[in-house]
Amino acid sequence: MISARTVLRSPTASKQAATEILKTINGSTLGCRSSFIVAQHIQLAPTSQRHFSSSPNSPKIKEFFEQKQTEKVRKTPAAWEHPVYTEEQMNAVVVAHRKAETTSDKVALLAVKFMRWGLDFATGYKHEKAVALNEKDPEAAQRKYGMTEEKYMIRNVFLESIAGVPGMVAGMIRHLHSMRRMKRDNGWIETLLEESYNERMHLLVFMKMQRPGRFMRFMVLAAQGVWCNAMFFAYLISPRIVHRLVGYLEEEAVYTYTHQIKDLDAGRLPKWEKMQAPEIAVDYWKMPEGHRTMRDLLLYIRADESKHREVNHTFGNLDQKNDPNPFVSEYRDPNEPHPTRGLDYAKPTGWERHEII
Ligand SMILES: [Fe+2]
Ligand SMILES: [Fe+2]
Cofactor(s) for this protein (predicted)? Predict the structure, then answer.
């Protein structure tokens, strides 16, 4: 961990420190503390902010995502094996919404709507106006509010950098809770950490395709500083609300990727039509030969988001302290539909507690 003091010491130290911080953010060791220190760092040393920015061709960003090859190491494969999805399963993913019934559901939904408004505002996307104009004149709506490949990519990078936080924070809090109370966790931690790992893979894949500019990287950094701390306290107060909130956030993610696939199919995203998925994606999802296009990639990512939607809505229905994680449990009757890591039995709005426990 690096301190704000080290950063202020000298320009070289400052440069090194900024690199270290960015490495921490992009590495798997991300925790709340690092984000908090990053947030502090920005306030304390405004001049060092320039070290966080770079042009799209900066060699700095390259070094974070390049495959590490050394004299002895050929390749470092993904730590978590991704479950195999069939094409049929991925095509069956649908946009869905779980009705907010309880007060905590309504709080979670409101928070997601607010965040959605913030993202629309920041990226200049006027959803209501776009929908209204689309009803009157679809062509004019496309001209005025239509999304381009670049605009979608900015949205994706921002969304993914946000999405990778809750699972890691929740996993860490449950890990500490288990040790503090000397109680079993019943399998939740691994699924939560795997979720944030999966979100980070989404982010890395998009980063491979379009390197974000100076402003975007600053936005991601600032949002992470706030978001990670907010998630930490929210999960301590009410893990149930946080899981519901993530469930609603994932509903938005499925919606966004469905739109991208539709726009791609309608010929509105020509740059993506011939684009091939990067190697990191082919390796991670084990994308079969002949199914490695941008469209295939979006199908895989959307399927992952639908899984997160299901997992978090289900977790939001369970007894947080005593219930086992139904996604890694063995069932008395394995032939009955039950939650799994893959897409065998999809439940877009989550499993109810009485169905599985
Ligand atoms: Fe994602
Ligand atoms: Fe997700």
Answer: Fe cation
What is the extent of the structural domain holding 244?
87-322+340-355
Asked whether residue 75 is domain-assigned, the answer is: no
Give the Å distance between the CA of 353 and the centre of ligand 1. Answer: 26
243 appears as a binding residue in the annotation: no
Higher pLDDT, 14 or 191: 191
Is 82 annotated to bind a ligand? Reply is no
- For residue 336, the 8-state DSSP code is S
Mark out the alpha helices in the chain (DSSP H runs). 4-9, 11-26, 32-44, 59-65, 87-91, 103-122, 127-136, 138-145, 149-181, 188-209, 214-237, 239-265, 270-273, 279-285, 294-317, 353-356
Give the pLDDT confidence of 41-52 residue by residue, as tens digits: 323 333 333 333
Instruction: Please tell me whether the overall predicted TM-score, pTM, comes out greater than 0.70 for this model.
Output: yes
Dist. CA 71 → ligand 2 center (Å): 36
CA proximity to 109, closest of 100, 119, 101? 100
Number of other CB atoms surrounding residue 280 within 10 Å: 16
Q: Quick check: 113 and 227 in contact, CB under 8 A? A: no
Is residue 349 one of the residues assigned to a domain? yes
* Number of structural domains found in the chain: 1
Is residue 110 in some structural domain? yes
> Under a CB-based contact definition with an 8 Å cutoff, are residues 37 and 1 in contact?
yes
Altogether, the residues listed in the chain come to a count of 357
In a domain, 221, yes or no: yes
Q: What is the domain-level CATH number for residue 294?
A: 1.20.1260.140
